[in-house]
Amino acid sequence: MNSIGRHASWILALLVVAAIPSCRSAAPDGPPIIQPGAPGQRSRVIDAQAAADLSKVPFTPADVSFMQGMIGHHAQAVEMTDLARTRAGSDAIRKIAARIDISQADEIKMMREWLTRRGQPVPDPHAHHAHGATLMPGMLTAEEMARLADTKGPAFDRLFLESMIKHHEGALVMVKQLFAQPGAGQESDVFAFASDVDADQRMEIDRMRQALVTAKE
C-alpha cells in the first residue's frame, strides 16, 4: 500500500464504526470508534464528538518543522538509492533501493503539498548540501556520501545497508521528537504520516538488517 493509501486508512480508522461481536445488544449510541495510538501507544475508544473534534485539530509550528525537515531527510535517501542503480553488486540491493526510492519520492510530494496548502514555506529538498547546513538525525555527512559514491560491488552493498539503516533510525528519532512536543502530531494528516513513517521504516530496517547479514557472508 502506498503512502496515500495508508493515510486514508488512518483517517478512516478514526471515523469507521468497528462492530464488536457480542451476545449483548449494542449501546444506544452505537458501537465504539477506535482512535489509533501514536507509535508505541495503544489505541483508544472515543465517542463521535471526539472523532469530529480530532478532524479539526490545527497544525502546530512543530508539525511544520517536522514536514520541512523530513523533506530534506527523504531527499538524501533518494540520492542514496540513485547510487545503488549503478554501484550495487546485487539485484537484492537494487530492489531494496527501488522500494525506498518510490516510497520516499511519493512522500516528498505529499509533504510539499501539505505545506503549500497551509501557506507554509516549502524548503529546497537539496538544502542539506549547502555549507554549514544542519543535518536531520541519521543523515549522512558530505564525506559519508562521497565515500558511498566511491564504492562499488559487494562493498557498496554493505555500506549502503549500514548507511540506510542509520538514516532510517534517524527518521524514527524525528517522529519520536515530534510526538514528544505538547500538541504536536495531532493534526490528522501529520498524525497519519508520522505514524506511517514509524511503521514503514521499522519494517525496512528489519529487512535491511537481514540483507546485511547475507551481504557479509
What does this structure look like?
The chain is mostly helical. It has 2 domains: 3-54, no CATH class; 61-215, Up-down Bundle (Ferritin). The chain has helices at 3-15, 48-54, 61-87, 91-117, 142-149, 153-180, 188-215, and strands at 33-35, 44-46. Helix 3 packs antiparallel against helix 4 (91-117) and helix 3 (61-87) runs antiparallel to helix 6 (153-180). The longest helix has 28 residues, at 153-180. It is globular, with a radius of gyration of 20 Å.
Secondary structure: number of strands: 2
Give the total of domains. 2
Distance between the termini: 32 Å
Instruction: Kindly provide the name of the CATH class of the largest domain.
Output: Mainly Alpha
What is the average per-residue confidence, as pLDDT, rounded to a whole number?
Answer: 83
Give the count of helical stretches: 7
CATH superfamily placement of the largest domain = Ferritin, core subunit, four-helix bundle
> Secondary-structure element sequence?
HEEHHHHHH
Secondary structure: helix percent: 55-70%
Rg value: 20 Å
Shape: globular
Strand order of the largest sheet: 1-2
Biggest sheet record? 2 strands, antiparallel
What CATH architecture label of the largest domain applies?
A: Up-down Bundle
Low-confidence stretches are 10-28
